[in-house]
Amino acid sequence: MDAANYISTLDSLDLLAQEPSSADFAVIDLAVDDSFLRFLYEADQHGSVQWWSLLENTRWQASWKQGPILLALNGDTRFHRKLKERLSFVPLGVLIDSPESSTCVFNWAQGWLLALAKSDERLFRFYDPRSFRPLLAAFTGRAKPIVNAGVTIYWHSGSEWQAYQSPDKAGKTELPEQPSLVQSELSALPPYRLADRAMAYEQVYRDYLPESGDRRVWVLEQLQRASKLGFESASLQERWLRLCIRIGSDLVGTSDFQKVMKAPEMTPADRMNAMERILEGTDATA
Looking at residue 30, what is its pLDDT? Predict the structure, then answer.
């Protein structure tokens, strides 16, 4: 699939750009914030919030303090407001508006957490807010959707609140079943994550990008090129993008950059540092 199709698929998702006014549940990753439980006890002054480790009854149970938990907010609007504020700054997890019981939501969340295998050998961190939109795109059209009917998931992308509301299938009689994933679905996730970051970078650098065509597609093409050249981390890919913006042409086509890329003893970080130094020297003598 080319860059334009990845962007188009993300665009086609029926998402809501709205802040959650209320929520029944939340899935929070304690590994992201080891102070969250202290925040929970201090913010839940009425003792109304309940929580359970999603690693319960798995071989990971002993490490629950570094794993995800499910919170039932039980109508505590003050705690909801404080939690929402925290989620706006730290990628802790997602908020859930659901008519289902806490047992049903727990089974759903733990089911997806363990969806990578029939056993509990691998964990699927579906609740990462930085990857939830790519996850929806990768799973578009699957027979068993990731979000149950009538449920709304809210997450903060790093720049804004987004939400996905699953269609409410009136009178549904489906019995819950253990979710499962296939390799083709997992393989689709990284390209969509890259496309999602390209859309975010377009907002950051839009004043410096080419004016013709879809600038998001151009940004994604640069990130894809960076990945193929061995720059796998998000930070190195963004630095590559900035180089492309500054030079205004294909970096790979220049002799200086080709020499750097062919040096076998250099790590990707070394190559990036060298290319930035070359460009800085060019700017200084211009």
Answer: 97
